[in-house]
Design goal:
Elongation Factor Tu (Ef-tu), domain 3, 13 strands, alpha/beta, 6-stranded antiparallel barrel, Rossmann fold, 2 domains, 5-stranded parallel β-sheet, single chain
Length: 278
């Protein structure tokens, strides 16, 4: 659930801002936020390509208010005009915090040297952050997600990767022939590659151990699906929003020659997941 601090504090009370895209709200981003102090705020430049923490989902991972600036609305501004805009909107601004590779202004012509010249307050530049020699960047985390390397993803994020979706009607085979699943439509989030995952599913603020399948149902109708099964619970109600946290990948998606083979594999998956969750 997104935190209530998204009710924005008056910009006149903000004395420090961190500027960036902040898709993912990962460990490196939090290094910037650590420099904000008591009256800080986050300026998120919204490009429309965020899919780790799209739109206002970023707010869940910070107690600082987040102010969204649509890139298309500001990309025509020169560096000087951009800084003037910030000074006008945050009249008591004394500190700007950015990452080492921050650039701004039309065609990204301005970077750290220009920022220190144009802004008369304090400029804090956070160096590149690495974990086990892996540079922490949103683009790198996306690649690990695409490869299903969830344990690495979660370490770089500093939390479990989580998606939000809406429950939709499934095939109906699960409750009849296999195990009951909650089928989910996910629009805004990048999804791991096809396979079976150990997960935690959150419904109505309650978290359950679960097993989640993502991919084309190659043994049945061939359509793409995201479906989760709650372990040791029988949940029959319909839900407007379902959240899934990814813990680890268990196996790749594969085709079975019969329903019996698929059913046997599902039973083995369930045993493995339950042992894993212990």
């Amino acid at each position: 659930m997104k935190k209530s601090s998204s009710i924005l504090i008056n910009k006149k009370n903000i004395t420090a801002i961190a500027i960036g895209g902040f898709d993912g709200m990962h460990l490196a981003h939090h290094k910037l936020f650590d420099q904000l102090g008591d009256n800080g705020g986050i300026v998120a430049i919204e490009s429309g390509y965020a899919n780790l923490t799209p739109k206002t989902y970023r707010q869940e991972y910070s107690n600082y208010p987040i102010y969204y600036y649509i890139l298309d609305n500001i990309k025509h501004l020169t560096g000087e005009e951009f800084i003037s805009l910030l000074k006008e909107e945050f009249p008591n601004l004394k500190r700007i915090v950015v990452g080492f590779d921050f650039c701004f202004g039309k065609n990204r012509k301005n970077c750290i040297p220009e920022l220190t010249k144009l802004f008369k307050g304090e400029v804090v530049v956070v160096k590149e952050v690495k974990l086990d020699e892996i540079a922490i960047h949103s683009r790198i985390i996306r690649e690990y997600i695409k490869n299903g390397e969830i344990k690495i993803v979660n370490r770089l994020l500093g939390r479990e990767y989580k998606i939000f979706g809406k429950q939709i009607k499934g095939q109906g085979l699960g409750s009849k022939s296999f195990v009951p699943t909650i089928n989910i439509n996910v629009d805004d989030f990048i999804l791991p590659n096809e396979g079976v995952y150990a997960t935690k599913t959150i419904i109505n603020e309650k978290e359950y151990n679960s097993i989640t399948f993502l991919g084309h149902r190659v043994t049945t109708d061939g359509t793409y699906a995201v479906e989760t099964h709650i372990l040791d619970e029988n949940i029959k109600n319909r839900f407007s929003v379902v959240q899934i946290k990814f813990i680890d990948k268990i196996r790749d998606n594969k085709k079975f020659d019969s329903f019996e083979e698929l059913k046997k594999q599902i039973e083995e998956d369930l045993i493995k997941i339950k042992e894993y969750m212990k």
